[in-house]
Amino acid sequence: MSVQEYLEKHLLSRRIEEAVNAAVRAKAPDPVLFIAGHMRRAAPAVITRVRARQILDGHGAPAVEVELHTNKAVHRASAAGAGALEGAAADAAGGSERRKILARAVADAVRVINDKVSEALVGMDPQQQAQIDQAIMDLDKARHKAELGANAMLAVSIAACKAGAAEKEVPLYKHIADLVGKSATTLPVPAITVINGGKHAGNALPIQEIMILPVGAKNFEEAMQMGSETYHHLKDIILEKCGSDSCNIGDHGGFAPNISSISEGLDLVVAAIERAGYNGRIKLAIDVAATDFCVGKKYDLEFKSTKKSGQNFKTADDMIVIYSQLCSEYPLVSIEQPFDKDDWEHSKKLTTLDLCQVAGDDLLMSDPERIKRAVSEYTCNALVLKANQVGTVTEAIEVVKQAKDAHWGVVVSHRSGDTEDSFIADLAVGAAAGQIKTGAPCRGECLTKYNQLLRIEEELGSEGVYAGENWRTVSTS
Ligand code: PGA
């Protein structure tokens, strides 16, 4: 098409005149910039290409980063982890072999994105998230998204979501809220990691994390202040009680003192909350990650010890007794993954006791089919949403809706060794999750999400509502 034909087709002289008139009406301080902005908006955004590259995640392992180009701007996103099959193989391997497997998986994903995905998305409107996600899904028909890898698909989908928000000239959380079909004003309660154990630390503590939930804060900013003050008091207490080498940090930035029981860890955290002066305003949560120490049908609470006492090889019913005691002795309000990923029976038994929130991580794998079963059998009462297990923004929104429809809690979660992309912060607000879990107030890949939530709260101003005591029941309607 010649320029003349283009000008006529798009009625450009009329649009230029409208832009000039608008600048006059607006008394624009800089008419050139105003008219340029006006004209820019007049051209609809279309995706012009998608480029991927390998970057490093928080573990120093290869991850996929995507740049989605439109005719107006470039939007960047990344997601942790490798493709499903390679990810599993990498998990089974160790050290440099693991890194090589991940690097191969990421290199494959980069190739597919640069060729097939880019070709499929060129020409699409970035505001049409569902259509874009469908086009991505159509390219990967393999079970569990093994061909492209859910993480690679997610990076493309997030980049498109950012482009859609930019085109609408609204913040990302607002665009996500529009996709969900609600208004975005609720800031989540942060589940802040303070102690690491399990596979995330070299100490003898079997469970993966102890977290604090500042439900009594008046807003998100105060919640983070209460959380980080408590974190620093905890450091002092650990120093006093366990010595300076106990202040090393684990995978999510929580301290990894050399303790071996859950109650030892909870005692340290309760002491820190008291010293910080937040008694009653901060509740506790644990991520047991029990799949990691399930042996046969039993749970080896000494799975990291070389010298086993034999006293700590527990049945699932023993574990229920332990959890019940912990809930009565501590302000423990949430237990994540209390049993093996396929132990539906005992998870249900614990949930039915109604002691606290029971959150499904490995149990659900953010998989709609598993969530459906857990809802109908009442196997748990909260979803841990790991978007890179789902694959696309549209599917992540769908599983949040599924959980909300069942009146479950929703914990939007990072991955260990996440990238510095802060998308899940916007997702937690846009989807009104009520809870976000993204590590300690330490380590860049954790802070980037918390800091984004601080910005969102500032931007929302008086419209922003901190979920606070309603952390389990924020509604999406
Ligand atoms: P991941 O879990 O190690 O599977 O990423 C992180 C978490 O559950 O907090």
From TrEMBL:
Cofactor: Mg(2+)
Alphabetized UniProt keyword annotations: Glycolysis, Lyase, Magnesium, Metal-binding
PROSITE patterns: ENOLASE
Residues noted as binding substrate in the record, renumbered to the chain: H200, E209, E336, D361, S413, H414, R415, S416, K437
Enolase N-terminal domain span: 47-176
Molecular function in Gene Ontology: magnesium ion binding; phosphopyruvate hydratase activity
Enzyme class: lyase
Cellular component terms (Gene Ontology): phosphopyruvate hydratase complex
Residue positions binding Mg(2+): D287, E336, D361
Pathway this chain belongs to: Carbohydrate degradation; glycolysis; pyruvate from D-glyceraldehyde 3-phosphate: step 4/5
Keyword hit for Lyase: yes
Gene Ontology process terms (BP): glycolytic process
Cofactor note: Mg(2+) is required for catalysis and for stabilizing the dimer.
Domain Enolase C-terminal TIM barrel residue range list: 184-474
InterPro entries the UniProt entry points to: Enolase, Enolase-like_C_sf, Enolase-like_N, Enolase_C, Enolase_CS, Enolase_N
Family of the protein in this entry: Belongs to the enolase family.
Name of the protein: phosphopyruvate hydratase
Organism the protein comes from: Miscanthus lutarioriparius
